Amino acid sequence: MEYPPVSVVMPVRNEERHLAESVRHVLGQDYPGPLELVLAVGPSADRTEELARELAAAHPRVTVVPNPSGKIPAALNAAIPETTFGVFRM
Q1: Cα–Cα distances in Å, from 40 out to 3, 64, 75?
Q2: Closest to 82 measured CA to CA, from 7, 3, 15
Q3: Burial class of residue 82 (count of CB atoms within 10 Å of its CB; 0-12, 13-18, 19+)
Q4: Cα separations (Å) of 45 from 12, 24, 28, 70, 85?
Q5: Mean pLDDT confidence for 36-57
Q6: Mean pLDDT throughout 58-78?
Q7: Collapsing DSSP states into helix, strand and coil, what is residue 65?
Q8: DSSP letters along 22-38, please?
Q9: Tell me, what's the pLDDT at 90?
Q10: What pLDDT score was predicted for residue 1?
């Protein structure tokens, strides 16, 4: 059986403490098909953006996109067009 590719979009803001662990859990899924993670990073008062870029540099399945407004709908709108697999509908 061939599994469809999955794109996970994660809006993040002020998540320095939890971001690395969250990314590790998403990438650690045992899904047998292709999986990517797009981090939509909003303005943060901590090192969230820097950490997100470090994670993307270390993991080829992670991409970072800016979310200047910091709002979740804007994060989704920014991230979805940047997914490799696009929107998959059954």
Answers
A1: 25, 6, 5
A2: 7
A3: middle
A4: 12, 22, 28, 12, 31
A5: 98
A6: 97
A7: strand
A8: HHHHHHT---SS-EEEE
A9: 40
A10: 83
